[in-house]
Design goal:
Strand content: under 5%
Shape: elongated
Order of helices and strands: HHH
Largest sheet: none
Number of helices: 3
Radius of gyration: 13 Å
Number of strands: 0
Structural class: mainly alpha
Length: 58
């Protein structure tokens, strides 16, 4: 995770397993959505993953 908001969420999740699980689900959903969008303009799976990860971290 890269943003300040995400780091704050990480800190909150350290002490609460339910928060950690929710954050994990939200992060996975965001990444899957980014992959889906980039898949519409790219055909290379490595490029899709790279673009999604970079976008997620911004």
């Amino acid at each position: 995770m890269c943003s300040a908001v995400q780091r704050a969420g990480d800190r909150a999740a350290r002490g609460d397993l339910a928060v950690a699980e929710r954050l994990r689900r939200v992060d996975n959903h965001r990444m899957e959505y980014a992959r889906e969008l980039f898949g519409k303009i790219c055909s290379d799976p490595d490029e899709i993953e790279t673009r999604a990860l970079l976008t997620f971290c911004l």
